[in-house]
């Protein structure tokens, strides 16, 4: 994923050679991958709204607030990448990952997705996944300052449509919806990588999540 982002000018050079954000360390984030044999070909992240909020609220605070005020529980899609050169294969994989992603999100009580994506990729989200635009062009701080637009997908908006049937008509096996949790060593490894890359100056926000979760009983590690 890092190489795809770096080649596209969406990421800077890092010592770890990985694309990581503080949001990858919190338990409300899940990473989905597609494999061909034993090789990972595609990946994306689902960042659930939690203590750290959502990455794109730094760009679109009004739009995110309006969605939250509607009572929606949101997750942001990010870090989408594919290592292959075939657009056709990528679109097919993206559509299938999207089906799994929606069912995973729905099983977690999530009502819809938001995404901040490059305008040329926005067409893919709209055409393949049914997103619609809610925010104007803005510079994306976590994509090396490249332009982005805000999109939303509310699951219930598509009830009774062919898109809703594609998402929910063929349920994924329950085993595919089980959340995989990083163990302590894995989490520590990625935390050290973030520190080396100087992408976070402090882990106070992460520690704050655990403090808040322990107090409120919302700890999900």
TrEMBL record:
Coiled-coil ranges from the UniProt annotation: none
Domain spans labelled N-acyl amino acid synthase FeeM catalytic core: 2-153
SUPFAM superfamilies: Acyl-CoA N-acyltransferases (Nat) (SSF55729)
Record-linked InterPro entries: Acyl_CoA_acyltransferase (IPR016181), FeeM_cat (IPR054597)
Top-level taxonomic group: Bacteria
Protein known as: N-acyl amino acid synthase FeeM catalytic core domain-containing protein
Organism: Rhodopirellula maiorica SM1
